[in-house]
Amino acid sequence: MGRFTTSKYKNAAPKQLKREHLVCGLRVNELCQNTPLACGVDKVVFAGEGAGIGVLDVGEVGNVQPRVLHGHGQFVRSFDFSPFEKDCLCTCAGDGLIKLWNTCDLTCTKTLHVSEHVQQARFHPVASNIIAAAERDNLVCYDVTKQKQILSAAVPCTTVSWSYDGRLVCCGGKSGEITISDLRAKKKVASATLFDNNKDVHHEWLGTDKIVLAGFKGRERMFQTVDISDLPRVISSLSYGGGSGNPFVKFDYDTRMMFCYAKGDHRYTYCEVGAGGVIKENWKETSREAVKGIALAPKSSLDVTNGEVARLMVLHHNTLAPTPYVVPRKSYHEFHDDLFPETRGDVPGVDGEGWLLGNDGYRELVSLNPASKKKQSNGQSGEIEAPSAPVEEAPEPLEENEKHRQILSHLTEGQSLYRNIEGKLSHRDYHFHGLKNVQTVFSQESNGFQIGKHYGAHLMAGSGGRLGIIDLHNPGNNNTKQLELVNQGNPVVFQWDPYSADHVIAVGSDSSLVKLWKITDMDTTPALLATFEEHSSKVILLQYHPGVAGLLATCDAGGCVVLWDTHNMTMINNLGVVRRLYSYVLGCCGRLHSVLSRQVRRSYSERYAKWHR
């Protein structure tokens, strides 16, 4: 009987992150037949537009511009990260090429010329430099170092997966047939037809003798577990309902957690698979957007100190959603050994030549405990011998899981102290009403209303280029409590000097003039301090420097940018013309400024750095 034993992972639940913690604005190629993404320790890759490969850093959030790898002439069909080199990525495409990439410096390191019918390529789980490729009617094994074919078998093969120990390989064909082969012995171990639809069968090994399969029976999508010694008998099955999207499965051997999804559906399912192959459904998760692909993050990148036992990278139409699965515990201060068994390290058990000669090899297990003294770096482990002479000690680098714990902590716990702030409308007695001739229609360049430390300013309707001044400490009916600044030309932009104690306001008008006014009080006529006449067209931008007193920047419609010293009432520099200028910002550092033009180009300059110093 297929009885299922209660598991400690049965209560693992997904932790949905807010939208600001997702990666947005991606352009995903939805024509990829296999899973269109893969997740490594530091990088996430996905099928981009055309034949491009998008590359993201783990931990990136918001609207990001992914880096793109170009090297294939047709759509990329599969992705796979090396289990031994975290920056090594394998891709294959319909142009008949298998390429190995370094995702750190975005370079192609190896190119294998294979059949144009290649559908999928996967690294060997134990031996280094070995790749198995599914080439429709043939299963081919390549030595990456020698860049040549070493083994092959004539079997229907559009999908491929290695057993946990790397001895056997499973192939799935479009006719619903699966074939288990021992490439080194050149023999077929078992085969059976378990599905009856002309679509790919996707599969993952549950160890060394059992496999979980995903395919179609008629229009119904099914997930089935089988024992390779007793084909075609099905141990356990899970129906995923009708639909046209291909079903896929992801499995974690250490925790026996399995994730099922179908491309194009708005849901995915978390299951557990017992030692006997029995499937138990634990959690169904729905999403607003259709799921295009799911990848499992490597175990070394999990936040183990917070109970994260798995992390899914869920790809949608234009977003990537990191989804941690967390087991609830009363306390997360200590490492929970029962949740995190030792997992395979990144040191290969045997090299390619040794495996080809019959040596199976074995990958050593490593602990996920951050406090563990066992460290792995470039395939080496052990204690570091102390130097004979005293030297200055450098700070120890963060453990891989500690680094990713900080990344996840930033995503989930970095919330503002002001997130619950609420605005409250003050009583009517504190409102300003009865203002005369308020201008309600003005150009898009104008800010319309500005406030300083003591006074406020607003545009006034009518002729004469008037600007109304109100006392912010005297609310109520301001019908008779208002000053007027009369400018030569209609005011467009204006701003109060943030550092002046004399309540100085700068006003730029459509007559190309910039005027500085001093407001003493509401009973005294405003004094005109200076008039700047460097511009030749309407002044559309005006800004005081946020960190330097007496520095004013103005821009006109012709794109001319000018810096002024408002203490000495002199021009500092004319920075030239920027065509089709939209926005101008002074940097808080006091040395840089930014210009945004129609070409969406930001320009930085240090022309006034010497003056600032």
Cα distance, first to last residue? 82 Å
* Beta-strand content: 35-45%
Structural class estimated from helices and strands: mainly beta
Radius of gyration: 33 Å
Kindly state the mean pLDDT as a whole number?
84
Query: How many H/I helical runs?
Result: 3
Strand order of the largest sheet: 1-30-29-28
The helix fraction, in percent, is under 10%
List low-confidence stretches: 376-398, 600-613
**Silhouette:** elongated
The largest sheet, given as strand count, sense and whether it forms a barrel, is: 4 strands, antiparallel
Count of strand segments: 49
Notable characteristics:
four-stranded antiparallel beta sheet, 613 residues
Walk me through this protein's architecture.
The chain is mainly beta. 4% of the residues lie in helices and 41% in strands. It has a four-stranded antiparallel sheet, with no helix packed on it. A four-stranded antiparallel sheet has the order 3-4-5-7, with no helix packed on it. A four-stranded antiparallel sheet has the order 8-9-10-11, with no helix packed on it. It is elongated, with a radius of gyration of 33 Å.
